Amino acid sequence: MSVVVLVTGAAxxxxxxxxxxxxxxGFGVLAxxxxxxxxxxxxSQLPGEGHRATTLDITQEESVQATFSDAESLGxxxxxxxxxxxxxxxxxxxxxxPLTSITLGDWQLTQNVxxxxxxxxxxxxxxxxxxxxxxxxxxxxxxxxxxxLGGYRSSSAYIxxxxxxxxxxxxxxREAAPLGIxxxxxxxxxxxxxxxxxxxxxxxDAQVSANIPLNRIGTPEDVAGAISFLIGPDASYITGAVVDxxxxxxxx
Length: 252
Known about the structure:
Elements: E1 4-8, H1 13-24, E2 28-33, H2 36-44, E3 52-55, H3 61-73, E4 78-83, H4 104-131, E5 138-142, H5 145-149, H6 156-176, E6 182-188, H7 194-197, H8 205-209, H9 220-231, E7 242-245
Parallel strand pairs: 1-2, 1-4, 2-3, 4-5, 5-6, 6-7
Helix pairs in contact: 1-9, 3-4, 4-6
């Protein structure tokens, strides 16, 4: 039986690429998203066997708990987690909303998905690991270059939520270490995925790329490659780290 990796946000641009890369690496992928039809489409195109689609609302404690308990009941407990689900809200005009115009509802929704969702996944993963010990377990969260630099194209709500993820990764890494589990994160920069295209027209790609040392916008596959490394054996002595995947953008 394949080692099972839970990938949240699996129907998104980066999530799909992560599923494809991990399936190619020989893992069994448990692809999770709010949209069952979309995530089933992802699973239907993955190479190899042992893949499954499931609906998951990472903001709901019961939904997260059910995902882990269902996997255990099927005899395929979740060995690794990639918490790729996330949300970035823009103003009605499609621009980054200033802090003074962000509603409390939008702030709370952003925190619930990006930071609280990551917390619920990490907590349940560690609980599951105490019930079913995992060999060389991996948890990978998603921060962002926006949290490291203070924004540019992202709202303060998004920046704060991704900053919380970076702190949670360090705290979680210390607590997970006695279980033999590493806890890390990736911090993508500008990645050619639906979230970026909410605010960036392809006609402006050249102008934006000029501000990136590697002179290009990243791809979902760039992020998936970093995750493949963090899940693999060569990353066994890395924990509490945030891996930049931004083409050198943070060197500014």
